[in-house]
Structure formats: structure tokens, C-alpha cells
UniProtKB/TrEMBL annotation:
Organism whose genome encodes this protein: Kribbella flavida (strain DSM 17836 / JCM 10339 / NBRC 14399)
Signal peptide: none
GO MF terms, alphabetically ordered: enoyl-CoA hydratase activity; long-chain (3S)-3-hydroxyacyl-CoA dehydrogenase (NAD+) activity; NAD+ binding
Domain 3-hydroxyacyl-CoA dehydrogenase C-terminal: 200-280
Alphabetical keyword list: Fatty acid metabolism, Lipid degradation, Lipid metabolism, Lyase, Multifunctional enzyme, NAD, Oxidoreductase
All residue ranges annotated as the 3-hydroxyacyl-CoA dehydrogenase NAD binding domain in the record: 17-196
Keyword Magnesium: no
Family: In the central section; belongs to the 3-hydroxyacyl-CoA dehydrogenase family. Belongs to the 3-hydroxyacyl-CoA dehydrogenase family.
Segments crossing the lipid bilayer: none
Designated name of the protein: 3-hydroxyacyl-CoA dehydrogenase NAD-binding protein
């Protein structure tokens, strides 16, 4: 059943090649999902060959893991590896009908990327963003064809979590939205149509939740105790482990966005800000047998 407000699916345009801007971990997860579910060529780009090679290598490694678990057959693994390629030259997107950006969360950077892409792709090629919280209407504002911009917000781990928030920006037209829904369905995701508002829907709740747990820690509760308390409630993952999965800089970025938009409702955790400023990617270190303990560097901050 179509979500309320989703346009008629007959407006959807075919997608025969996908571009992914960025070759980091999120970009790689997206590339694999698109290749596996749409069975079309997917090309990743990044600033230099080393990043591109690392990104494509990571995706090929994930394909090998699927093969090792018996989730795909050897011929499928080879097909997927051939479908996922990389380049430093964005001209490879010239014949792509759907390009998604998964770069650092910086509005101006994303605007510049979309402006560059517009010079390369066809006028009706979709430009999608996987932003966690940035305003998509503004991201599209200076484009010649802002009506082809749409939010396509996945949740980590992309291969496992079923949710896809499809965000209609102020200028998004029905054909773009219909294509986004058709793609989301082919990706086998549960697509929801959400408004372009700070952090959309799910990240608002997640940020509030993680922010309150972080506040308890800022006020003196030890991290493992906070995690133990929330785990015992039956959550799939303790909050400070979830923060690592989300990425500490991303979590901080969303908290700052929400704090700017709704200062009375969203605070920025002092601990989170300090840990990010120290360049840490986790609150914990893990022993060889997989047991977490709070990183002594974090404790010393
Ligand atoms: N990539 C690919 N597959 C993964 C994975 C990853 N990073 N992590 C786990 N998996 C797979 C495993 O391989 C396993 O697959 P298999 O059945 O084929 O072996 C399956 O997921 C289950 O994994 P596990 O048995 O190891 O672990 P769990 O049962 O504990 O589940 C989890 C792991 C799915 C990550 C679960 O802990 C969970 O749902 N955690 C919460 C995640 C969450 O809330 N994410 C949202 C973050 S917010 C976000 O992303 C938005 C952004 O804008 C900030």
C-alpha cells in the first residue's frame, strides 16, 4: 500500500545506473544494497584513487562475507563485484539516472556537489541525499532543476534495518518522488514519506533519547551503568554502543542541528562534544573476547 501523500507509481522513471558520491563506509553499504537489489551498475566516486580503491575493496569484501555465509551463490558474488566499480572522475555519472550523495554532513559541501552533478547528469536524473538532518529544500535551492532532489535516509546497518525515510523537499516533484518510492521498494525497504524538517522523524527521537542518556552520564552516571539500564529494557543495542554505530561526529552533528532548531528541547552532551573533539570514534575499547570497557582516554577527558 502506498504511504499517504506518495504519488502515483505510474510516474516513476526507470533506474538503470546508480551513482554514489563518497566511498566511505555508509557509501559502501549503499552501493552494495543498490547493486544487490536493483541489479544495475553502481559507481562510487571520491576525492582520490586511494579512497575509491578502499571503498570498492570494502564492498567486495562484504560480498565475499555474504558468499562465505551462503547468502549468495558464487555466480551472484561475481556479478555483484562486476556491478560495483569506482572512479575519481564524476563524469562516470553522465548516464546515471539516480545519484545519491553520502559525504560528510556539511550543507555547503552537499550544495556544491549537487551543483557539480547538475553539469554532468541528465536534467531529470534524480539527485538524492542520505543526510541525517540537514535541510534538503535548502540543499536544492540554487539548482536549475531542484525538483529532482529528494531525501533518501537509511539507517545503520543499511543491509539489516528495514526503514527508509523518503523526504519530500519543498521543490521535489511527483515523478521524482514516485521514482524514489519505486527504488525504495526494489531495495525491499519499508518506505515512509516524511516532511523536510530538522532531522526528519526518526533522528529527532533518537537524538532526544541518546541526548537524555548522555545527559545522565554528563551528570555523573557511569557509561556502563547507563548502558546496562537501557539494555535491560530490551533495546537491541546499548545506547553508547549505538552512538559508535551511528558515528560519534554524526551523532554530535545531529544533536547540534536539533539544538539550533529547538534549543529548549535538545541539548548537546558535554561528554559527546569532548570525545569527538579528542578524535575518538567510540566510548569503549573491546577486549579480544569482545568485552567492552570504557576507553581510559575517554575517562581521562
Ligand atoms: N553490516 C552488515 N550486516 C550487519 C552489520 C553491519 N554493520 N551488523 C550486523 N549485521 C548483520 C549480521 O551479519 C547478521 O546477519 P546474518 O544473520 O546474515 O549473520 C545480522 O545483522 C544480525 O547481527 P548479529 O546477530 O551480529 O547482531 P544482533 O542480532 O545483535 O543485531 C543489529 C545487530 C541489527 C545492529 C542490532 O543490534 C540493532 O538493530 N541495533 C540498533 C541499530 C540502530 O538503531 N540503528 C539506527 C541508527 S540511526 C541511523 O543510522 C541514522 C543516521 O542518520 C544517524
Amino acid at each position: 500500500k502506498r504511504p499517504a501523500g506518495a504519488p502515483d507509481k505510474s510516474l516513476a522513471r526507470p533506474v538503470t545506473k546508480v551513482g554514489v558520491v563518497g566511498a566511505g563506509l555508509m557509501a559502501g553499504q549503499l552501493a552494495l544494497l543498490f547493486a544487490r537489489r536493483l541489479e544495475v551498475p553502481v559507481v562510487l566516486t571520491d576525492l582520490d584513487q586511494e579512497r575509491v580503491d578502499r571503498g570498492v575493496g570494502h564492498v567486495h569484501g562484504e560480498i565475499d562475507k555474504l558468499l562465505g555465509k551462503g547468502r549468495i551463490r558464487p555466480d551472484k558474488a561475481n556479478q555483484l563485484k562486476a556491478l560495483v566499480t569506482g572512479s575519481v572522475d564524476r563524469q562516470v555519472f553522465a548516464d546515471a539516472d539516480f545519484v545519491i550523495e553520502a559525504v560528510f554532513e556539511e550543507l555547503q559541501l552537499k550544495k556544491t556537489i549537487f551543483a557539480d552533478l547538475e553539469k554532468i547528469v541528465a536534467p531529470d536524473a534524480i539527485l538524492a541525499t542520505n543526510t541525517s538532518s540537514l535541510p534538503i529544500t535548502e540543499m536544492a535551492a540554487d539548482l536549475q532543476h531542484p525538483e529532482r532532489v529528494v531525501g533518501f535516509h537509511f539507517f545503520n546497518p543499511v543491509a539489516v534495518l528495514p526503514l527508509l525515510e523518503i523526504i519530500r523537499a519543498g521543490q521535489t516533484d511527483d515523478a521524482t518522488l514516485a521514482t524514489a518510492f519505486a527504488v525504495g521498494k526494489s531495495l525491499k525497504k519499508s518506505c515512509v514519506l516524511v516532511k523536510d524538517a530538522p532531522a526528519f522523524v526518526v533522528n529527532r527521537l533518537l537524538t532526544r533519547f541518546l541526548g537524555e542518556v548522555s545527559a545522565a552520564v554528563d551528570e555523573g552516571t557511569p557509561i556502563p551503568e547507563a548502558d546496562k539500564a537501557l539494555s535491560a529494557l530490551g533495546l537491541p543495542m546499548p545506547p553508547f554502543v549505538l552512538l559508535q554505530l551511528v558515528g560519534l561526529p554524526v551523532a554530535l552533528h545531529v544533536a547540534e542541528t536539533m539544538n539550533r532548531a529547538y534549543p529548549d528541547r535538545f541539548a548537546v552532551s558535554e561528554n559527546l562534544a569532548k570525545v569527538v573533539a579528542a578524535g575518538k570514534s567510540s566510548f569503549y575499547v573491546w577486549s579480544a573476547d569482545g568485552k567492552p570497557s570504557v576507553d581510559p582516554d575517554v575517562e581521562a577527558l
